[in-house]
Write a structure and sequence with these properties.
single chain; alpha+beta; about 200 residues; 5 helices
Amino acid sequence: FADSANSKFSQTDFIVLKDSIKIYKKTNPLSESKNEIIFEESNLAPENVRIVFNDLFKQYIAVKDALVYNDSFGAKRNMLQLIDDLKSETKDFEILNKDDRWVFFINNYDKIRNKANSTTFISDQRFLFNEITIGLMKFIKQFGLNNKSIYIMNCLTDSSIGNAVWLSNKNDTKNPYLGLMNDTLCAKVKEVWKFP
């Protein structure tokens, strides 16, 4: 990326391999993040699919918030609801059944749900949350959201779990991997994804 004080934005096109979307990256010196990705509507799933993914994203935020506040019961309940709705709310969308990652999720739904149902300790729930985050990020990148911006947050510390990446609906430094022992100094916006 060009980092020129004279230009407001520098723009680079690239294609994500094995995805059907074309992404434009912009570097905006006035933005909270150096990486702002604007998705083109023509390369995303139809609007009705993206609206359902908006609802799934809200449920993901409920899981994240429960982990931030060390609410093991709420994290488990919301995680199970998210996994169930990933299957039930999307069953009629043929476009999803053409995606290998989606088919893998559906074929392994029972295993994933059983894993979520058997986690009782907050530390285990945080490990599973990391896996869910990675999967949901791939689905959102592939199919999109409707008229929404999301923040990809990260925090790399010795006490963080996995890759310590999470999604947020705002520039929120509350870290679901650290809970109430949150080190907000390490939480940074990695990217902002903007969907039409």
